[in-house]
Amino acid sequence: MEVGYVELAIGSILISNLVLAKFLGLCPFFGVSRRTRDAVGMGLAVIFVMSIASAATALVYRHLLLPTSPEHTNLLGVLGLPVPEGGYVLILKTISYILVIAVLVQFVEMVLKKAAPVLYRALGIYLPLITTNCAVMGIALLNTEAWRDPANGLPVHLAAFNGLCGGVGFLLAMLLMSGIRERLTESRVPKALQGLPIAFISAGLMALAFMGFTKLFGIAV
Amino acid sequence: MAGLSLLREFTDKPIKHNPVFVLALGLCPTLAVTTSLKNGVAMATAATAVLVCANLLISLIRRLIPNQIRIACFIVVIAGFVTMVEIAMKAIAPEAITKALGIFIPLIVVNCIILGRAEAFASKNGPVASLLDGMGIGVGFLLALVAISLVREVLGAGTLWGYRLTPVTVGTATVIPAYVPMTVLGMAPGAFIVIGLLFGLFHWIGNRRRETVRLAGVAAVPQVARDFPKPKKKPAAQKAESGDPASEPRPPSKPRPPSEPRPPSKPRPPSEPRP
Asked: In 3-state terms, chain A is what percent helix, strand and coil (to 5)?
């Protein structure tokens, strides 16, 4: 079943927000959200990497891992290499995804450094952190296994768009959180709850608010 | 003696270096899968298996890995073990658990606990020490997940390991009436709030320990001030209110703002929300 762009956007940004509903990317969410500047930088870097990584992993999934079917061809099969009956999904998916993401992050870093030094100066320090950001890997996995059509995963263009939306959702959560945390440094918090504990509790209240978006416009995710 | 210090690699880890509550690592699976005790234990077991195997293998091949590409090598080793665990889980674990853990099994690859141990410990130490270190951290992870999922399952679903706890009946008389579960604890917001409160509990216990140590005059504890920085601004009214009782025999040479350390008896234990 084909999924629409609008449905995908509302679903990924608001209803099942990566951070607040799916618990992905919590390390940067709590680690880099102390200042709004850093939060925005990290969020933008994640949007950037996540869209590219989603497209790349969707391509890998369809054309290297899955066996040849009417909808797509396995390139390894075309080259005459053996492809087992179920494809390489079970044994190579995790490894190939993490490698694709790691290589991609390195590549993006190099390209940015040469082509867009200004952008590199703004986002550069966040890029290495993104390799081990589970949100990027998580959305790649979600794109190819959990969304409506588990056998084929999302098509490449929709996967890229979903990555973009996931990144926007992440940026939104980071922005809200950094605002809250900047206020928290000014307020009196019980000693035992200072620092991370109160940040967790605030995130919980934010998640509670985001639960209000459930079934928004009848979209079930 | 060497054996004893090796053993410390194991015994130090679960509490003092608890990966979740002290180092704040591996938060994603911690929050996502702790809806029930079974899921928590399954997740911790899977992660520990990967951690121990990866630690062992990396420390065995640590001299062969070129320094520049070590992170990539670690990731490949970890991803290999994760795939094995994934396939093993599909074979032996009940369907319900595999489904509940979902993408968080393949996501062990990017779990910062495992990569962190590979980088900080296994790449610098021998195989036996690395094995013990992996086991210690794994037990710590298990303890953390059990603590969180216990609270969430008992209060959020009214069950324990899948068994309904209430109502308790003796003969025909109901001793404890049926508990109405706080469903929110099983959902996303509950996860954040429970782990926040448990984190607070951990800090509170830690603070009290340090306080006791300081009162006994054993060691100076400048750590406290660093770990728990005070808010930048304080309302002026507070200064007047807190001349703080003489419960703090502090050397007068260190003039700190009087409001900072509370007497140890005062802070209420940040206990779990009660029904």
From this structure: 70, 0, 30
Above 60 in pLDDT, residue B226?
Answer: no
Helix segments in chain A, DSSP class H: 5-10, 26-31, 36-60, 75-78, 89-115, 117-123, 127-130, 134-145, 156-184, 196-210
Q: Which of A137, A197, A211 sits opposite B203 (nearest CB)?
A: A197
* Torsion B145-B185-A13-A116 (CA) sign: negative
How many independent structural domains does chain A possess?
A: 1
Task: Give the gap in angstroms from C-alpha A188 to the nearest C-alpha of chain B.
Answer: 7
- Quick one: pLDDT at residue B153? 92
| Chain A residues touching B197 at Cβ < 8 A | 197, 201
Domain of residue A34, residue span: 5-218
B199: CB partners within 8 A, 6+ apart: A196, A197, A200, B21
CA distance A146 to A153: 8
What per-residue confidence (pLDDT) applies to A147?
Answer: 56
Beta pairing class for B168-170 and B173-176? antiparallel
- Rounded distance, CA A136 to CA A98, Å? 9
Give me the residue from A26, A98, A187 closest to B27, CB to CB.
A26
Look at residue B270 and tell me whether its pLDDT is greater than 90. Answer: no
d(CA A137, CA B26): 14
Q: Assess contact for A1 and B5: CB atoms under 8 A.
A: no
Residues of B in contact with A192 (CB under 8 A): 200-201, 203-204, 207, 267, 270
B 52-71: CB under 8 A from A: 71
Binary contact (A197, B200; C-beta < 8 A): yes
Q: How confident is the model at residue B2 (pLDDT cuts 50, 70, 90)?
A: low
pLDDT digits (tens, 9 = 90+) for A1-29: 456 888 888 888 988 888 898 889 888 88
Q: State yes or no: ipTM above 0.95.
A: no
pLDDT digits (tens, 9 = 90+) for A33-86: 888 888 888 888 889 889 999 999 999 988 888 887 777 777 777 777 777 777
B196 lies within 8 A of chain A by CB: yes
Q: Does B188 touch chain A (CB under 8 A)?
A: yes
Which two structure tokens, joined as six digits, stand for B240?
């007047």
